[in-house]
Amino acid sequence: MSFTSSMKSNEGAIEVLARKRESLRQERERIVAIQLARAQAEERIRKEAIAEIRSSCAEMLNLKARVDETNAQLIADLDRMISRAKEFRETPSAAEMNLHHLQRNFLQQTEIIRRQARQEALEREQDRINHAQSQLRSPALQSGLSQDLTPQQADSIGQSFENAISSLHNPHIAATLLLLSQKRNAPEQDRAGGYRPMLQGGTMLAHGA
To answer: Is the pTM here over 0.70, yes or no?
Structure first.
């Protein structure tokens, strides 16, 4: 009877070990699947960020072309005004007044276009940041991380993602963001061109928002 009991006990232990081994195998497969999904999400976010930056650069080039075209038109207006002044033999004072008026109009139009370009660049940058952060906070990715990582490790990985995206910033757009974020607390009437801040916390990625 003692031998039979010992055999049954060993068989039970073997079955327990087999179940544990199968459980560990399934757990390893689940961890590998989560890690693969995390890597794919990171790669997708990186590619989307690069595509957004390229698109922003193309739009900035289009804005520059518009500014150049406007400048050319204003210069042509100046030339026509000078020619008309000579043709009608205007007095020097009248010609100077016309030139001064055109110069002031030229500067005003150029400043308006520059403000529009800065505002559009800021809006595109904010949309790209919001999109990237929404990807980082997707429920599927967060649930996968929380099953295998401590909160500190999950935060560290999230910060790494944000730092990677932050490193892709266009330096000109980043400079614009910094300049505009410094003005976000200025009185409404002091903000150039009726600017209203698009960011509530400055440059969001820099602070890991």
So the answer is: no
